[in-house]
Specification:
Chain lengths: ~240, ~180
């Protein structure tokens, strides 16, 4: 019965597909034009963001103004904080150079548990959070039953982070799959995606994210999953 | 203690004369047909496939990894087709279906055999994932690993969807044949 069904299905699909007449000659140019428009808009956004950042940094964050590369790694909800110097009885406004972020580990029940980490603003908070995720849980956290789906060797993995108009790109080096082969199993890959998703989307300014390995879908190939862009509501698992 | 954080790593340069044109020539038509088999709507299918190509070209910096592109395109087309089907379900709740855009046309009905129509009708009654698995296997002839990458699921789940889909399709055809 199955053989017969297979044959009938194959025949029907091919016959029906043959009826689909599509003229792809104009399609290629249409694709190029649309792609070019998107790239132009992105460049404009990046350029505008860079100009705005430099202007703001020159006024508020002179210590960060020297490193314009961080424009892509500082979510727009970054804010300065103030503190009061009680000893001198004078109120002094200072610029915070660190921020507490969350990284997410997996507990014994398979649920995500946040852990606080302090990261330098100069590196960008998203970059800092991802770095902490790669480093893994502390020994105390491990004693508490928390773990990461990444192998410990992943701590030395390279990566790059950019944010453009809410679109975050976490571009891992091609060393990550070989440093963490255990993550490619079905259960571990799902856990890692949930950890990464929670860590990245803790920042309100991130609306969607691409996880890639050297500009390619090799990230998803490593996890044996289809290449996709994840959103706040869809972690891609 | 500190992880090595690379700034932009040097990227591999594309060496093909025009990878987008090659991909378009080799995959555009079959992807439109795949989408049409799932959507029964050629216009929407072309939109879905064009969107997939645009996303690929604009987001992955000029197709630097051409080898991975077909898998990405198939996955994007399946996602786009799913999205279109969900939009259609919403539209159909509020308005009569626009039969003019939808396959099969009168021409196709005349050309295809009655058995093909019965098979396609039965296929449309299957759950989304089973329908996708059967189309990927029996139209595109993909391996289980390629199907898993396209569908974003494990190879084991692919086998399950294929097995159940084929069994369900066989059951529906048997009912219809009787």
């Amino acid at each position: 019965v199955n053989d017969s069904t297979e044959e009938r299905l194959r025949s029907a699909l091919r016959a029906r597909a043959d009826l689909v007449q599509t003229d792809g000659r104009g399609g290629l140019e249409h694709i190029r034009r649309r792609s070019a428009r998107i790239r132009t808009r992105r460049r404009a956004v990046v350029g505008g963001t860079a100009v705005a950042f430099v202007a703001v940094a020159a006024v508020l964050l002179p210590r960060l103004g020297e490193d314009s590369d961080d424009v892509n790694t500082l979510p727009a909800d970054e804010s300065t904080t103030t503190s009061t110097d009680g000893a001198s009885q004078t109120s002094t406004t200072v610029v915070a150079d660190e921020r507490t972020v969350s990284v997410y580990w997996v507990d014994a029940d398979g649920d995500l548990r946040p852990a606080d980490r302090t990261v330098p603003l100069s590196d960008g908070v998203l970059r800092g959070a991802v770095q902490q995720l790669l480093l893994g849980p502390s020994s105390d956290e491990r004693d508490d039953g928390l773990s990461s789906a990444l192998d410990s060797a992943a701590a030395s993995a390279t990566f790059d982070v950019t944010i453009t108009d809410g679109h975050a790109v976490i571009d891992f080096g091609d060393d990550l799959p070989s440093l963490s082969p255990g993550t490619s199993s079905a259960a571990a890959s799902e856990a890692f995606l949930r950890q990464l998703h929670a860590t990245v989307f803790q920042f309100d300014t991130v609306t969607e994210a691409e996880f890639i390995v050297r500009d390619s879908c090799d990230f998803w190939n490593w996890l044996q999953r289809g290449c996709t862009t994840v959103t706040r509501d869809d972690p891609g698992v | 203690m500190m992880a090595t954080m690379a700034l932009r790593l040097p990227r591999t340069r594309a060496t093909a004369e025009d990878p987008l044109a090659t991909l378009h020539r080799e995959h555009y038509r079959s992807l439109v047909r795949l989408a049409a088999l799932l959507l029964d709507d050629i216009g929407r299918s072309e939109e879905v496939v064009q969107d997939a190509f645009v996303r690929l070209h604009s987001r992955f910096g000029g197709l630097r990894n051409v080898e991975a592109a077909p898998a990405y395109l198939r996955s994007a087309v399946l996602n786009g087709a799913r999205s279109q089907l969900r939009h259609r379900q919403v539209r159909e709740r509020h308005a009569a279906h626009d039969a003019a855009e939808v396959m099969p046309s009168a021409e196709s009905a005349a050309i295809t055999s009655g058995d093909h129509d019965r098979v396609m009708h039965a296929l449309r009654r299957l759950p989304e994932r089973q329908r996708e698995a059967l189309a990927l296997r029996y139209y595109l002839d993909l391996s289980e690993a390629e199907m898993a990458a396209a569908m974003g699921i494990s190879a084991g789940s692919v086998k399950t969807h294929l097995h159940r889909g084929l069994a369900a399709l066989g059951g529906l055809l048997e009912e219809d044949d009787q």
